Fold HAD family hydrolase.
Amino acid sequence: MLTLETPLIVFDWDGTLMDSTGRIVSAMQTTARNLKLPVPSDDEVRSIIGLSLSNCYRLLFPGVDDHDWITEEYRYQYVDGDKTPSPVFEGVEEVLTSLKEQGYYLTVATGKARHGLDRVLDESKLRHFFDKTIASDESNSKPDPAMLHTLMKHFALKPDQTVMVGDTIHDLKMAQNAGSHGVAVTYGAHSVDSLKKHAPIAIIDDIRQLIE
């Protein structure tokens, strides 16, 4: 699946490297209840995972123009208020170690803002694996290809040398829009049927399949 002809591997974070889907859903629903907003269903929240927060709010809470107060509550709930576990998926460190030793460039492109990404990079102790990371407040939101373009430019690589690994259609659409390859993981936020529609070169049920 992966060869050094595709040396740049770009990982999504939530639902791909970290099992945070449940926590995102719970924190967003609690935020809505506390702010007296319509409470989105589990599926509605799962559908927006991977997008920037501003795009999430536009889809979940249409008609609400001021997003700062939502962000304040949501960040509190996600970081401190909600106690739903969000561990790194089993096998992630093993996979990153193997790919790093083989000479791949490892990067992250996420819907998280920079401060949130930095927090989980440090808490997970995975920061040292990544050659570069990019957050949603540093670029256009997925599925715009800007994040991938930035990473490819940094390493002076082409779209066909780049693989995006993610659990949502937003990740795969970003790869399509950039002309890059997409690998879908089935254990995250979006269904297998929805992922198949966006032409991934592979669909995997376990992150360790990247190195098998």
Observations:
- The longest helix spans residues 21-34.
- The chain has two domains: 8-19+87-210, 21-81.
- The chain has a mean pLDDT of 94.
